[in-house]
Amino acid sequence: MTIHKEGYTTIALSVLFIFVINALVDYKYYDITWLRWAVYIFSFALFIIVLQFFRNPSRTFSAGENLVICPADGKVVVIEETTESEYFKDKRLQVSIFMSPVNVHINRNPISGVVKFFKYHPGKYLAAWNPKSSTENERTTTVVEHKTGVQILFRQIAGALARRIVWYIKEGDQVIQTEQFGFIKFGSRVDVFLPVGTKVNVELNQVVKGGITTLATLS
């Protein structure tokens, strides 16, 4: 397991914060043993929590020309037909994955193809399970066209804790299935919009792994 590049600055700032707090406590309250130990334990726990936010575990990824691979770790919270109003403007099958703060936060391409559309939207920070988060929160929308002509839309959505969405793609890019397309700091949600009638291979509340779990099979 390694640490993702998006965590370097945050980890460095956390270490600096921990050092300053511990130095102050050691200097001003050196005679209060229980307080110093409480701060030590808190500092250690904070450091471990920040580290796990940015972990990048080694994995053997799934692959398949007709497979849609899960773009993120988390839990499936939505499987339903809905109207996608930004790009397709028609009925699509939506599958949404909620990423908690303890999940790996790397986002991976569900299919290989060409990026036909990309847009960043500034917005609110509603809780990720709020239905309005898909249209009102800070988010990105990406559409990748498979070589068969099928287009898949996926959307990074910030949540109440996630305050920064990172992306590594732009329109016209050729992307490869399971390679990283972005990162959402401190979790949140990823929505995937599939053609109606696509066979979904996951169930509600199923725990999934980015780059590993097969989300759906294209017709």
TrEMBL record:
The UniProt record lists the EC number as: 4.1.1.65
What post-translational changes are documented for it? Is synthesized initially as an inactive proenzyme. Formation of the active enzyme involves a self-maturation process in which the active site pyruvoyl group is generated from an internal serine residue via an autocatalytic post-translational modification. Two non-identical subunits are generated from the proenzyme in this reaction, and the pyruvate is formed at the N-terminus of the alpha chain, which is derived from the carboxyl end of the proenzyme.
**Family annotation (Pfam families):** PS_Dcarbxylase
Q: Site (Cleavage (non-hydrolytic)): which residue positions?
A: G187, S188
Keyword Cytoplasm tagged: no
Subcellular location per the Swiss-Prot or TrEMBL entry? Cell membrane
Q: Which GO terms describe its cellular component?
A: plasma membrane
Per the annotation, how and in what number is the cofactor bound? Binds 1 pyruvoyl group covalently per subunit.
Transmembrane parts of this sequence: 7-25, 37-54
Q: What is this protein called?
A: Phosphatidylserine decarboxylase proenzyme
* GO MF annotations, alphabetized: phosphatidylserine decarboxylase activity
Question: What is this protein for, i.e. what is its function?
Answer: Catalyzes the formation of phosphatidylethanolamine (PtdEtn) from phosphatidylserine (PtdSer).
Q: Which InterPro entries match?
A: PS_Dcarbxylase (IPR003817), PSD-A (IPR033175)
Could you tell me which PANTHER family the record lists for this protein?
A: ARCHAETIDYLSERINE DECARBOXYLASE PROENZYME-RELATED
Catalyzed reactions per annotation: a 1,2-diacyl-sn-glycero-3-phospho-L-serine + H(+) = a 1,2-diacyl-sn-glycero-3-phosphoethanolamine + CO2
What is the annotated quaternary arrangement, including any partners? Heterodimer of a large membrane-associated beta subunit and a small pyruvoyl-containing alpha subunit.
The protein's enzyme class: lyase
